[in-house]
User: Which sequence fits this backbone?
């Protein structure tokens, strides 16, 4: 409970001055039957005053396979383990991450639901249920704010987005992608979406409470909606989280959250109260019992890229002592071989973290260093080859080797600790079954050219 209070603290600051009572009659979605297969709202009256505790008489809301749930990471089931039979495959996202969505229309009210047009020529996400492969068409995205619906190990997040998809083979079968958000840097897409909505309001083309307001934006699914580093997800069988709570949803809740600022959270507060003054601004349903249901962990395939950098560092610096110990066998976290000082440890971690963040890798680890000696013209500097091994989620990054090669060498420099020069020499794809070619960096290429010139 303490962790849930901490996670909600930012949201409470965002709405501290707002006293809210009332209800919201907006609906998440339910079974579709129109020719365009759009989800239609059910004729149920409900509100969020008790966050769904009083919905048991509405539709299937009192059923045994309800959502949302608390995801306990110590109880996850690996569907690839022998003897595990779920009857549902993992999701193949296919072309969805690289798709661009157009014709965006938003509802300027509580859940900020928006619809869009999906390109007709893409390969849609697929899930095999039983023995039938279902193609799923994304229909809409909406938000649950100030408290996420799903929790992970009891911890709530300030925002959760739901991408609702419908089976082309069975209109009563839905799949939902759940994207959690934590407080941090501003989310560029949320800014783009809300700025476009405010422009429509300020120009008099719409007002709070308007529905299906056209916005002059496009959506890059990978950059704007999905987690940037990993498409690993928790999967389970559940329901819609609003009445009529139909138990027809294959849930996919991503393990890696996106970030948003506290100021962006306030936008949902404005949209809720300016559209319906008596609405309850926190639109999450309370956690439902699992009733014996398993939650599965689906890990995306990994790519491994090894990069070698030519580096130069100052004699007597933190970089010199850290790299000297590393070459001698010292390793971070090793129970009997970690002799780094706190300054050396912070330096090593800093290089690794900048490499990881600059490439959106899951991990970046210094795996080797070979000290070559002193520079002839600058004896106070030592030159060496530094190897960093990167791990990427292949589903989230279509060109991991390119991501490493595009990383600016300046990102890895740390002049304060003596790491003065960094120059990419080679990259190698070590992914099993992948192309194991070695690519030469610009710095090494120039050195080879100069060496060739001098021999002529």
Assistant:
């Amino acid at each position: 409970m303490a962790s849930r209070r901490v996670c909600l603290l930012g949201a409470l600051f965002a709405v501290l001055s707002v006293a809210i009572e009332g209800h919201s009659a907006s609906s998440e979605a339910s079974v579709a039957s129109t020719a365009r297969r759009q989800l239609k709202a059910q004729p149920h009256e409900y509100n969020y005053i008790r966050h769904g505790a009083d919905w048991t008489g509405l539709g299937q809301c009192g059923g045994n396979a309800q959502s949302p749930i608390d995801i306990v990471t110590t109880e996850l089931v690996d569907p690839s383990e022998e003897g595990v039979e779920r009857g549902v495959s993992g999701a193949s996202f296919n072309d969805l991450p690289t798709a661009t969505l157009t014709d965006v229309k938003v509802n300027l009210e509580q859940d900020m639901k928006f619809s869009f047009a999906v390109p007709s020529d893409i390969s849609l996400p697929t899930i095999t249920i039983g023995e039938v492969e279902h193609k799923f068409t994304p229909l809409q995205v909406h938000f649950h704010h100030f408290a996420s619906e799903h929790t992970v190990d009891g911890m709530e997040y300030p925002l959760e987005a739901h991408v609702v998809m419908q089976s082309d083979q069975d209109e009563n079968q839905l799949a939902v992608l759940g994207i959690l958000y934590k407080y941090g840097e501003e989310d560029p897409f949320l800014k783009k979406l809300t700025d476009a909505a405010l422009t429509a309001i300020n120009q008099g083309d719409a007002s709070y409470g308007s529905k299906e307001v056209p916005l002059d934006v496009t959506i890059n699914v990978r950059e704007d909606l999905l987690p940037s580093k990993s498409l690993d997800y928790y999967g389970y069988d559940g329901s819609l989280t609003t009445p009529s709570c139909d138990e027809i949803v294959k849930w996919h809740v991503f393990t890696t959250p996106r970030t948003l600022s506290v100021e962006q959270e306030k936008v949902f507060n404005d949209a809720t109260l300016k559209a319906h003054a008596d609405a309850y601004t926190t639109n999450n349903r309370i956690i439902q019992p699992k009733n014996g249901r398993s939650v599965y962990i689906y890990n995306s395939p990994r790519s491994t890229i090894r990069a070698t950098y030519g580096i130069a560092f100052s004699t007597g610096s933190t970089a010199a002592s850290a790299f000297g110990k590393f070459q001698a066998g010292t390793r971070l976290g090793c129970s009997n071989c970690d002799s780094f000082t706190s300054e050396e440890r912070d330096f090593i971690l800093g290089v690794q973290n900048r490499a990881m963040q600059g490439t959106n890798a899951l991990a970046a680890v210094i795996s080797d260093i070979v000290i070559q000696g002193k520079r002839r013209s600058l004896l106070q500097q030592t030159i060496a080859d530094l190897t960093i091994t990167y791990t990427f989620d292949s589903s989230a990054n279509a060109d991991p080797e390119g991501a490493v090669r595009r990383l600016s060498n300046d990102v890895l420099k740390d002049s304060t600790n003596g790491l003065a020069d960094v120059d990419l020499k080679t990259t190698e794809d070590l992914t099993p079954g992948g192309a194991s070619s070695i690519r030469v960096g610009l710095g090494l290429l120039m050195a080879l050219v100069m060496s060739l010139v001098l021999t002529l």
Summary: Residues 48 and 283 are 6 Å apart (CA to CA). Residues 342-359 form the longest helix (18 residues). The first strand starts at residue 70 and ends at 71.
